[in-house]
Automatic annotation (TrEMBL):
Residue numbers of 4-aspartylphosphate PTMs: 54
GO BP, one annotated term: phosphorelay signal transduction system
Domain of life, per lineage: Bacteria
SUPFAM superfamilies: CheY-like
A Pfam family it matches: Response_reg
Species name: Bradyrhizobium australiense
Stretches assigned to the Response regulatory domain: 5-119
Descriptive protein name: Response regulator
Keyword annotations of the record: Phosphoprotein
Length: 128
């Protein structure tokens, strides 16, 4: 079992559950949240190794979450997933250091490759 903790944030319950199950099957500890605010209030913020988040969510978006966490000194890798692939969102996420930007529905293998890249030594920097 890995000691890596993956936090999944998506307001779509079915996507959140499917992603949770896939990541858990890879041996990671997984925590899932319905909103960015739930994640920020959780005790798992500081033990997170990687965030997988939806881009568009009510209240705080995944991009706003990334900005907030970077501003507060959290530098863990981000993997974005979205049903609304907008180039400006992708560019903003990648410029801020995201490892991957996947369109829903995404292939499980693509997510696995993103996780491997994100958790590799210097993984986030390799995709800037």
């Amino acid at each position: 079992m890995s000691n890596r903790v993956i936090s999944i944030i998506d307001d779509d319950g079915s996507v959140r559950a499917a992603t949770h199950n896939l990541v858990r099957s890879l041996g990671y500890a997984v925590h899932s949240f319905a909103s960015a605010e739930d994640f920020l209030r959780s005790p798992h913020l500081n033990d997170t190794s990687c965030v997988i988040t939806d881009v568009r969510m009510p209240a705080m978006s995944g991009l706003e979450l990334q900005d907030h966490l970077r501003a507060t000194g959290h530098r863990f890798p981000f993997i974005f997933v979205t049903a609304f692939s907008v180039e400006s969102d992708r560019a903003r996420a990648m410029k801020a250091g995201a490892t991957c930007f996947l369109s829903k529905p995404f292939d499980g293998e693509a997510l696995i490759k993103c996780l491997e890249a994100a958790l590799a030594p210097n993984g986030a920097a390799a995709n800037k």
